[in-house]
């Protein structure tokens, strides 16, 4: 028994093929446009080459200075250093940097709470009697960019 194909069935198959190709192309192109970008952080005013520079990246006001989203550590080099965060999704971030001279993983302070090691924040933000709020340090990130943070020593 032979089946006869009508023009309607052929057209329907062609439509399915065309729709499938459009869908696959759309998925492929959306992947290209949705690629994550790079945030480069240039740290300046490093007073010496003792210890390490720790950079913390926070992705929300709620987590700022509590739980970092990502972190990077590099050897301290007198003058300037640079770290790069790759594959970051677009969004708002706040950054903190410290010159951890003794490599104990924390910002050491004196009896009065004044930092004994270098520190800094994105936008070179400063707080009153402590770190700045997220809004002062917030960096809006939608494409690859470079930001600068100058360390402060008290």
Note down, in words, how this protein is organized.
- The protein has two domains: 1-35; 37-150, Immunoglobulin-like, CATH 2.60.40.
- The radius of gyration is 25 Å and the shape is elongated.
- The strands form two sheets. Strands 2, 3, 5, 6 and 7 form a five-stranded antiparallel beta sheet that branches.
- It has helices spanning 7-33, 134-137, and strands at residues 37-46, 52-58, 70-75, 79-88, 91-100, 119-121, 139-141, 145-150.
- It is of the alpha+beta class.
- Helices cover 20% and strands 36% of the residues.
- It is built from two helices and eight strands; from the N terminus they run H-E-E-E-E-E-E-H-E-E.
Sequence-ordered SSE layout with sheet pairings:
Layout lengths: L6 H27 L3 E10 L5 E7 L11 E6 L3 E10 L2 E10 L18 E3 L12 H4 L1 E3 L3 E6 L4
Parallel strand pairs: 1-8
Antiparallel strand pairs: 1-4, 2-3, 2-5, 5-6, 5-7
Quick summary of this structure?
This protein has 154 residues and is an alpha+beta fold. The protein is built from 2 helices and 8 strands.
Beta strand %? 35-45%
Distance between the termini: 93 Å
Classification by helices and strands: alpha+beta
**Average pLDDT over all residues:** 88
Q: Into how many domains do the coordinates divide?
A: 2
CATH-assigned fold name of the largest domain: Immunoglobulin-like
Gross CATH architecture of the largest domain: Sandwich
**What profile does the largest beta sheet have?**
5 strands, antiparallel
Helix-residue proportion: 10-25%
Low-confidence stretches: 28-32
Q: Which overall shape is indicated by the principal axes computed on the Cα atoms?
A: elongated
């Amino acid at each position: 028994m032979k089946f006869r194909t009508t023009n309607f069935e052929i057209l329907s198959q062609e439509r399915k093929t065309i729709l499938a190709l459009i869908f696959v192309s759309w998925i492929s192109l959306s992947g290209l446009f949705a690629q994550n970008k790079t945030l480069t952080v240039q740290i300046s005013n490093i007073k010496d080459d003792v210890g390490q520079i720790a950079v913390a990246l926070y992705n929300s006001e709620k987590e700022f200075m509590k739980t970092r989203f990502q972190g990077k550590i590099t050897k301290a080099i007198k003058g300037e250093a640079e770290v790069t965060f790759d594959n970051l999704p677009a969004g708002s971030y706040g950054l903190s940097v410290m010159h951890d001279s003794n490599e104990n993983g924390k910002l050491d302070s004196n009896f009065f709470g004044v930092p004994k090691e270098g520190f800094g924040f994105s936008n070179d933000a400063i707080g009153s009697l402590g770190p700045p709020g997220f809004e002062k340090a917030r960096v809006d990130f939608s494409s690859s960019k470079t930001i600068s943070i100058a360390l402060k020593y008290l």
